[in-house]
Write a structure and sequence with these properties.
Layout lengths: L5 H10 L5 E5 L12 H15 L14 H13 L8 H9 L3 H12 L6 H11 L5 E4 L5 H10 L4 E4 L15 E4 L21 H11 L3 E5 L6 H10 L10 E6 L6 H14 L3 E5 L2 H11 L5 H10 L22 E3 L6 E6 L7 H9 L5 E4 L4 E5 L2 H7 L9 E4 L11 H16 L4 E5 L3 E5 L7 H10 L10 E3 L3 E7 L2 E7 L3 E2 L6 E3 L1 E2 L9
Parallel strand pairs: 1-2, 1-5, 2-4, 3-4, 5-6, 6-7, 15-19
Antiparallel strand pairs: 8-17, 9-11, 9-12, 10-11, 13-14, 16-17, 18-20
Length: 519
């Protein structure tokens, strides 16, 4: 299986002439816009089938991401002999909703009024720069054209089976979106095996013509329906098919089907430029292309700083004039990490937390165990790979942080935020930390001990405060992190009482600030 190096592709894409590639998008591109993927919908269909038959209580299976729920559902279909189904999406969609009118209503409700994610906005910016001009898609939604018109007000034309025969030379200077399976607003939608047998003749011809002129970049598409795969195979019968390459993006760690691997091998034999390219997600990959092409857009850059860049080390710089506290000791975060790297690890069993901390050391990395021997990590990708290379067994993938985790007071995510701030205070601001057990973290500047006059003032106000000879006294503080109405606040915990510690460094004050979550 031929793999394309991602960095090499990005460098090449930047210097290739405009419109060297058409883009082909599948349902995976729309997931972060709130539209389920085809694989997710299969589980929905199965649940609805069993719920209507009173085999399960559908209300108890609302979360179909839980493996235990999926296993219970799948057991029924295994017992009835559902094996080796070529297209589960088509098969179970038709079983769940046999009427084509009902299927169209279902999909229309699913995709209506969705907001384009950052990946579509980056696509719009690339269209504006004329790096792309034609987007082929099996999706029914209107996210592509929404992004194109919203970001740069360019006109774009929609081509589908309903109007393909009347549209001439659609591969022109006008951005074109080709809806291979129909548009939910106008067309009959094609979903079942019978409906997906072949592309409408005019679209098929246009696709074959385009395949001899450009490369094709495929993102978010599994190659599950026969109509598109048959057309791709027909295209490869031409000796000059996809002269710039057929680049098929797959999620990291996913193995393509044998049929798809054979298709890409055939393409590579023809042009020596085709293969599989591993990506984190549609959004992240399109943003990588956007950045590589040195594009700039305020809306995109603002979203990216929240979603992608904040996986790196947390920074505490604040502009007091622009940040209004809700309390005198609270600072509202301008942004905070909403994505993280994930990977499998060899660190398991008793003592794994200690071994993880030893591996991380003083680096700018923050990591936590989640489930199934999986790590969630904040940090710079290259530093993570170098620091944890002997402890990770899989590629680094990017995952969104589920919003509901924000509000769990004992969540691993909140614990990671505490560590991010702690590392920033130590590494960026040069503070020292006094740690005692899991819960006590006091921060101070070792270069600024209290003067004799300040210590004398404390003694005048508190007769019980005594300083042992040769001990040094510092002012210290603690902090707390709290989510309020989906906003993150850093609370500087004010100190109230003096305390003496019998070590070479003692702290002037303690605090009643609530402690950080335990592991």
């Amino acid at each position: 299986m031929k793999k394309i190096d991602r960095d090499t592709f990005l460098r090449s894409f930047k210097v290739l002439s405009n419109q060297s590639f058409d883009l082909f998008l599948g349902s995976g591109a729309s997931v972060n816009s709130g539209i389920p993927s085809g694989g997710d919908l299969v589980w929905h269909f199965k649940r609805e089938i069993l719920s209507s038959k009173k085999i399960i209580n559908g209300k108890k299976f609302t979360d179909l991401k839980i493996e235990a729920n999926k296993q219970i559902i799948q057991n029924y279909f295994d017992q009835r002999g559902d094996r080796n189904i070529a297209n589960p999406y088509s098969h179970y969609f038709k079983e769940c909703y046999p009427d084509s009118l009902v299927r169209k209503e279902f999909l229309s409700d699913l995709v209506r009024d969705k907001k384009p994610s950052i990946g579509f906005l980056c696509l719009s910016a690339l269209v504006e720069r004329q790096k792309f001009n034609v987007v082929w898609t099996t999706n029914f939604d209107d996210l592509i054209e929404k992004a194109i018109t919203a970001l740069n007000y360019k006109s774009c034309q929609i081509v589908s089976s309903d109007n393909a025969s009347s549209v001439q030379q659609f591969n022109s200077d006008i951005p074109t979106v080709v809806k291979l399976h129909g548009d939910f607003r106008y067309d009959p939608l094609q979903n079942t095996d019978e409906e997906l047998q072949e592309l409408e003749a005019s679209l098929h011809t246009r696709f074959l013509e385009s395949s001899t002129q450009k490369g094709l970049l495929v993102v978010g598409y599994s190659g599950s329906d026969k109509s598109v795969m048959t057309t791709l195979e027909k295209a490869l019968e031409k000796p000059n098919a996809f002269p710039k390459g057929l680049i098929w993006c797959i999620p990291k760690g996913l193995q393509p089907t044998n049929e798809l691997a054979a298709l890409l091998d055939k393409a590579h034999q023809q042009n020596n430029r085709s293969g599989f390219l591993e990506i984190d997600s549609f959004d992240y990959f399109l943003h990588e292309i956007y950045k590589t092409c040195e594009l700039s857009n305020t809306q995109i850059d603002t979203i990216a700083s929240e979603r992608f860049e904040q996986r790196q080390a947390f920074r505490l710089s604040q502009n007091p004039s622009a940040t209004l506290p809700i309390l005198l000791n609270a600072i509202k975060a301008k942004s905070f990490p909403k994505t993280a790297f994930t990977t499998k690890t060899t660190l398991t069993g008793v003592g794994k937390w200690k071994r993880l901390r030893q591996a991380i050391g003083s680096s700018n990395i923050v990591a936590s165990f989640t489930k199934n021997d999986t790590l969630m990590i904040f940090g710079v990708e290259q530093e993570i790979k170098e620091t944890l290379k002997s402890h990770i067994t899989d590629d680094l993938k990017i995952a969104d942080i589920p919003e509901h985790i924000y509000y769990h007071s004992d969540s691993f995510y909140l614990g990671m935020l505490y560590e991010l701030v702690e590392k920033a205070l130590v590494n960026d601001f040069g503070l020292s930390v006094y740690a005692k057990g899991r819960n006590i973290r006091k921060f101070y500047s070792s270069e600024n001990p209290l003067s004799d006059s300040e210590i004398a003032d404390i003694k005048n106000r508190n007769r019980n405060f005594n300083i042992y000879q040769n001990n040094v006294v510092f002012e210290a503080f603690e902090f707390k992190i709290e989510f309020v109405n989906k906003e993150l606040y850093l609370l500087i915990c004010l100190n109230t009482e003096p305390v003496e510690v019998s070590t070479s460094e003692i702290f002037r004050l303690i605090t009643s600030c609530p402690r950080r979550p335990a592991e």
